[in-house]
Design goal:
The protein is of the alpha+beta class. 34% of the residues lie in helices and 27% in strands. A 5-stranded mixed sheet has the order 3-9-8-5-6. The longest helix has 32 residues. It binds copper (II) ion (CU).
Length: 137
């Protein structure tokens, strides 16, 4: 007698339980997709003057900053960043510029631009596609 009473008590709760479960799943899915959007926004945020690598690209491809800013490089293990002249850049020639910056494979380092100009740099093994600019104003 008691068992069947309990069963009847639970019966109307089952659709409610399913609803709560589905609502929970829905909100978890919603919060996950929100996090993805946020992390994408962070990747596009260049205010920190940080240059990273993704596939065969530098991110961002063009970094705009001010004289006196510090520019950080956080390179993947298969990438380097070698400053070249504008002519070399356009010709996909990896010859380093005199007194330019050179960051080795996987470097996590920085440099402080001393001139208001455009700095051109390349990843030597991934030319011609992997090259980028820093515009200092
Ligand atoms: Cu590379």
């Amino acid at each position: 007698m008691k068992i069947s009473d309990n069963y009847n008590d639970f019966k109307p709760l089952r659709p409610m339980k399913i609803l709560v479960y589905l609502t929970t799943v829905f909100f978890i899915a919603l919060s996950c997709s929100k996090e993805e959007v946020n992390s994408n926004e962070n990747n596009n945020n260049t205010s920190g003057n940080i240059i990273t690598t993704w596939a065969h690209t530098f991110q961002p491809a063009t970094l705009n900053c001010s004289l006196g800013d510090t520019v950080f490089f956080d390179l993947g293990g298969s990438h380097n960043a070698i400053e070249v002249s504008e002519a070399s850049y356009n010709a996909n020639d990896p010859t380093p510029i005199e007194n330019g910056f050179e960051f080795g494979y996987g470097a996590n380092s920085f440099f402080v631009p001393q001139e208001a100009k455009t700095y051109y740099y390349v990843c030597v093994p991934h030319l011609p596609e992997m090259k980028a600019q820093i515009i200092v104003e």
